[in-house]
Amino acid sequence: MENTVMNKKTNGWLNTDEKKKNLIFDFCDEYIKFLNNGKTEREASKIIVDELENNGFKNINTVDKLDDGDKVYMLNRDKSVYAAIIGSDSMVNGINLVGAHIDSPRLDLKPNPLYEDAKLALLKTHYYGGIKKYQWTTIPLAIHGVVVKPNGDKINIVIGEDDNDPIFTITDILPHLAQEQYENKIGKAIKGEDLNILIGSIPTEEKSVKENIMNIIYEKYNIGEIDFYSSELEVVPAFKARTLGFDRSMIAAYGQDDRVCAYACLKALLDANKNSKTMVAIFSDKEEIGSVGNTGMRSEVFDLFVNEILTKKGENTPGAINKTYCNSMMLSADVGAGVDPNYQSASEQNNASFIGYGVELNKYTGSGGKSGASDANAEFVGKVRGIFEKNNIKYQVAELGKVDLGGGGTIAYILADKGMDVIDCGVPVISMHSPYEVTSKYDVYSAYEAYKAFFEEE
Ligand code: MN
Ligand code: MN
Q: Over the stretch 139-179, which tens digit does the pLDDT of each residue have?
């Protein structure tokens, strides 16, 4: 990269020839398939594990000894995945990690969801993650998830995706009668308890609408109303990921936060050239609600994975895991906030990311005085810049919106707490956390290139 006095920020498509553009478009066609087939953390985990196994990765529990070049993964409760390609170098000298999350904001069914009101059958939900509630009304919705019986039988449910499936929706008041709703502030216009899914309307002589619907569910899935107690049913937009724009340069889809970085990370690991360092990819759950629980990044299940590698590599001396962490480097692969042309006042333009300008580095996250921030040290930012620049990867450095407007975090601080050098690095998104998030295909590919180069760094 040319060393000039001033930092010239240019659009990534300007230096993209036809061949590269086709490469980017083909990559994103596969990414779109991934989005459509993996709308929940469970579905994404399954696709990731299948892809890993097809590329020679083995479940770490089936392996006794690990050597240079071996590939292993750990699937944590069907909702998060850790994968590694073993290097020749000792782990305590540091490993290269890229970590994304595969959960997305959505509506979860309550444990007692079914009820009848105003002669219609509905399901109650509790939203998961930061959503703008009004965006979830009057759109087609699908239900994905599992119901587990007391005997352990697990029933997988996906309804609303196939063109022949019915879909579901949350109703909203007609404008003619919305005077009271209009009086509310936008954040209060739709309440959490208003996010009820319409699922049926036919009664019979003997049965209410609700009973009739439960009967249909029982016939179709062999589950009774009490079985909702032990279910995880997620309500997500039923529409498909699509190419966006006359120039076909963008993607609109549900769940790009953070399955865009997860996909780029997976492909980068599979395509990475052999390195003496061990390369580790993380696909975590529960990021959207604080990385909590046994499938979230704060759980020690990831430490178990690293310990297993150390043990099976014959390097698990006292303190080895801490030394490994303290000498390692990581990209926290999560999305950033691209400038929205309709809401530019939310961004400080010099420190904002633009879609199509390459993968985004966030030196720090947090909010209001960097509270809760994971702030990468300058030495590490310099190193990451060096990796990107020598590999001709287009990147931009930004922060999440104007000071004191809000903020956010990722899994970065959790790994930084363990002693790693970590920086946030992901794809800028417009309409983040909405049912239809927008990304640039250029940035999706830049993220892939960035993660691959980072994995390969000696
Ligand atoms: Mn995210
Ligand atoms: Mn998010």
A: 999 999 999 999 999 999 999 999 999 999 999 999 999 99
Ligand 1 centre to CA of 273 (Å) is: 27
Q: How far is CA 112 from CA 122, 147, 323, 359, 407, in A?
A: 11, 13, 47, 43, 34
CA atoms of 190 and 175, how far apart (whole Å): 14
Q: Output the average pLDDT for the chain.
A: 97
| Whether the predicted pLDDT of 1 surpasses 60 | no
Among 120, 122, 100, 103, smallest CA distance to 112 is for 122
CA–centroid distance, residue 287 to ligand 1 (Å): 7
CB atoms within 10 A of CB 148: 15
Cα-to-centroid distance, 90 and ligand 2 (Å) = 35
101: nearest Cα among 452, 407, 410: 410
Q: pLDDT > 70: what percent of the chain? A: 99
Proximal ligand: closest to the CA of 128: 2
Q: How far does residue 339's CA lie from ligand 1's centre (Å)?
A: 17
**Cα(255) to centroid(ligand 1), Å:** 9
CA–centroid distance, 365 to ligand 2, in Å, is 13
